[in-house]
Records
---
Amino acid sequence: MECTSMTEPKSERFFLPSDQPRKLSYYLELVLTNKVLILVTAAVVVMLGVVYVLIVPPTYESNLVIQVEDQSGGSSNLLGDLSSALQLKAGAPAEMEIIRSRLVVSAAVDKLRMYIDARPVMLPVVGRWLQVRPSGTSVSAPRFGLDSYAWGGETLEVDRFNVPGELEGKRFTLLSLGGGRFRLASDQADVNATGQVGTPLVLSNDLGTVELHVSKMIARAGERFELRRYSRLDVIDRLQRELTVQELGRESDVIGVTLTGRDRQKTAQVLNAIATEYLAQNLEYHALETRRTIDFLNGQLPRLKKQLDRSETAFNTYRNRYGTIDLAEQTKLLLEQSVDAQTKLLELRQKRSELNQRFTELNPAVGALDQQIGTLEKQLTGFQQRISDLPALEQQQVTLVRNLQVDTDLYMNLLNASQELDIAHAGKVGNVRVVDYAVAAERPVKPKKALVMVFALIGGLGLGMAVAFLKSAVFEGVRDPGSLEESVGLPVLAQIPRSPRQQALDRAANGNSVLAHRYPNEPAIESVRSLQVALQVMMLDPGKGLILIVGPSPGVGKSFVSLNLATLLANSGESVVLVDCDLRRGRLHKALGLPRSLGLAEFLREKAELDEVIRKGGAQLPDFVACGDYPEAPAYLLMSPRFTGLLATLRSRYRYVIVDTPPVLAVADSAIVGSHADLSLVVAREGATSLSELEHSIAALRQGGITPRGIVYNDMDMRRGQYGSRRRRYVGYYTYGEE
């Protein structure tokens, strides 16, 4: 039987006028009404978060810190200037690119053989969590009788594993046979051979040669390892992308290198290998540059020594012939300026000669030197003109002294620079140092379990609310009787609250479950009683008492309304008959504890007479006509003259004839029966009946010439909203038998 004892509403949407915005209370009510759905959704998402945290392997992060030192300021001015000109100081940005270069990364990849992946085969999904770390060099005993899987302590060290290019990345399986023996197999490579630890295994097939050398294996007989040989260039490229290299602080010349990986020990090893190779290449580079500079200086020293000897000889010859002339202060100043300019010019020409061995004329460093050389040549030209104005002997003395002093300074500077570079080269010192080497991380950086669970909870609650709002938008269940009147243009004649007692009667299913008969003071019956009063006022004509109770769809409670309305009318002393015209799925007989057979269907098929199908209800229950056995074509029976005659006879015998019909939107039976009715009521259930269903039902009735007089709002949740709170207070105050 259909009644107010229903499950939670199927939709949560209010129907408000289009110009009326929804209040916050609507959304709060929507959340509270769907709290079970929201909590279940949140629980599911949280469980998915737990599964994610447990299944996803942890990711560890290691880092190292490198400092780039400034060595451009050497002990010799010439060495410092030459180092600056040769751009020996790289700085942090350039060193960062060197760290992630193929030169450094490839050396680390080769050192650790990162292109060889050898790992024990674990139980899928949960194998990592069931690992047991054994003591010493033994392996863990198998669990659950699965001895082919690794359970902890297994080790496989592969020194060499070369495969043809077509087999790179393909899976090979290495099966431990015990005693250091193993079997290498691969379906993709057509390989199946036995080998021994410490002995190279070489196989040839149509694809090429497979080479394997296992240096160490710790495993039980029957355990398996998975082997893959990846492309060396692909591994180098991937490692270059995974490295994070950045300067720690602006212009600090301190570089941080970070790497993440699944194996915390290996991640730290990779970073330290990169640091070692970077230091080695930096030292090698600086040693090479220093050696080149030393060779260049040593090549220039003999020529400069000869030039110095010639200058000394010329000056001594002049002094022996003419003696030494005291020069005026102005002439001495001119000599100093000329010597200084000449020395700088020669040094710059030496630098340019070194740069010409490494760079083209378009290099910025070469261009800068050419500009400085041009400036000094102009200065020397001016000094030479001033010297030419001096007396002949003074000119000769100034020229000889200048040449001697310039050659002496240049030779001594180059000699000192060469000696200092020899010392630096012997010391083998680069310009970078590792401040912090990488260490194995103790805790993973991903997944962050607490953060994942918080986001899972928040996301689950948000998803649950979204589902609730989507459900409200799609199903459009009515939730407000006030706005319902405005939407369909019909008055709400009664608002029937949900009845827990009716739910209990339905579960018991032991005979009479008519709420008005068992609990006449129930709040739901009070609402039906108000409907009774309204109908008695609307139907004052004694000859017009046929009331049609319809609903848009099954489960709205029209049978509950029909049965309890008929019972209340009978209790008030009226002559009432209740007719179950649902010849397809009639259920009213169950509520009355009566059999279904020998009812309306038998009468319409002329298998029984009217008095045989009318069951007397007594003093407190209405007379009743059951639906009877379900016929094959109920609509044709309802259109028969015998049905019309039945209703006419019942009208003449009873003051009220309550007719319960099938759903309007399901079949046309309601429209057929409604053509005989004096008054029609449409039952809408809160949360289950949508506005569109209600509108289509009313339109279908009107199309059949039936004008509904009102709506019965059924199954109203008294816990919901401010309207329900007021209604609950009023009903609770006026309950029978309470002061």
---
Amino acid sequence: MSTTLDPVLETETPDEKPSRTAWLVALTTIGASLMDLLDATVTSTAGPSIQRDFHTSTSALQWMIAAYTLTFSVMLIAGGRLGDVVGRRRMFTIGLVGFIASSVACSLAQSADVLIGTRAVQGAFAAVMIPQGLGLIRAVFPPGKVSQAFAMMGPVMGMGAMAGPILGGLLVDTLGWRSIFWINVPVGLLALAGAILVLPRDHEQPGHKPKLDIVGLILASASLFLLVFPIVQGREANWAPWTWIMMGATVPALAIFALHQWLRHRAGRDPFIEPTLFRKRAFNAGLIVVLLFNAGFIGTGILGTLLMQYGLGFSPLHSGLTQLWFMLGTMLSMGIAQKFAPAHPRRVLQSGLALLAVGAAASALTVRHFGADLNSLTVGPALLVAGFGVGLCFTPIFGVILAAVDDREIGSASGLVNSFDQLGGGIGVAVLGTLFFDRAAEHGLFGAAEYSYWIAGAALVCTWAIAFFVPRTARSEDQLY
């Protein structure tokens, strides 16, 4: 009989309140997620300073930011499977130790190439660490009470998102860009102490033992590389024929990946991605929505950072403080979304997408009107509207998309949605960053920013239209967790 490694479950009744240990487990896993979030936000703020320090190309700047999210997105499903096979407590600890070590390596990097490589490794360890949190929390919280832990996560992550750009700017301005990676060490060590002291031990449970699809992982990674590498490098290569050949090769590479997944599924073996999910039109539409939403959200954020630091000469701290307009809009709208999303989840999602598109268009018009006279006040209204739209999207997006799948598919579908969420951020940085730097040479930084904002707005309008194909209803929080 095969076995699956799961944390030991305590015997609890449905009416039992979560124990003190359960809350400590939640704090430990949420702390790790917060460290991951802060790492992503502070790095975006520090990007221009890193580029100037290394005297490197703009494509290298894009890779410094995107390498983390792209590796994270591909490895996320594999990380979840490793938790099933090896044990969630063990994989959480391995991922956390690796994340701390790779953060130290990032801070010590002496070249852009080394930093890009260590950022990719950092993303891989984050992908091993983050997926274990749900299983660990479910092991110690009473049935039906898991959503209480995730209700705590929302405000914590929201505050982290607000603090990230400011913290990053403050650290870069006072201690230099290397400090943004050193900050992970004390936070990580606190989380590691919690992991050692309070996480439930792994225990073998009877049942099917999942296998990791290594070939599927390699094929998925190759497909992503064929798409993203020429997008980032194409401008510096003057869009040579090989860039178009690589992008074109993405289609057959994905076809081979899909065939491999179907054959494994037909043979009764564990695929990297459950192929039956792609027969569901509403779920496929949802994947496109989450991909494009995050590409627009993260991509326009990077555009703002590039414009403020390169075009306006803002310091990292100044640009981080300016982003407070965006964060304020997000926090204001999340309360509204929590009130209306349970009854009208798709409408709330589409309202958010529409406002994010309006925010991108308003940013384009603001750049055109003010140009070099832009300041933290004149960019405020556009950032506030965009942030308001993002806050409306955050609450319903996962529940709406996962309403399209069966209960038995929820685990695989959830991992895939999270992967597309991360992948969208990496693609947004690659595409909008390339558009910005490509146009800047001929049309200047402000013309490039205006053009890129219009492209982002158009993509978000398309995302709004695609959202008509996702379910009208959403899964409840307890069904998701």
